[in-house]
Amino acid sequence: MSYTASVITVSDLGSRGLRQDTSGPAVRAMLEDAGFTVVHTAIVPDERGQISALLRACADERKIDLILTTGGTGLSPRDVTPEATADVLEREIRAIPVAMWVEGLKITPNAMLSRAVAGTRGSSLIVNLPGSEKAARENLAAVLGALEHALHMIAAEGHG
Fold first, then answer.
1. Single pTM value for the model
2. Model confidence over 66-89: pLDDT tens digits?
3. Is residue 115 part of a domain?
4. Residue 138 lies in a domain
5. CB atoms inside a 10 Å sphere around CB 14
6. Which domain holds residue 18?
């Protein structure tokens, strides 16, 4: 089965056109290579309400299967993506970020500083990725194999 995806880049500078987004396109390419159909992309500022509203719209109105964010998961006061995501989640999936941390720690001790969260809203799976292109690619690679199975389970399609 083919699944739809959204890639949302969270960046104050990117949303104002002051920094080129490289993580969003890298994540999109990985998803497309894995057979996902990317039907939506966006760049939004580090504003909790805007991030939450866009996540809700992607899940509730657009019914997008997989919604990935990139950026805003660090320790800066402006990094609010995990909080915005938690605001909209119905069920948290703690092991997805844990898997990303485990793999990331093999590369850099800085991986432990990510505050990513993941979970479901309706039939959508939402996962936070770091903002740097390298870290976003590494984190997605750590969990990509399980995401399609997760989507099968969310859709109650069984263990496929």
1. 0.96
2. 999 999 999 999 999 999 999 999
3. yes
4. yes
5. 22
6. 4-154
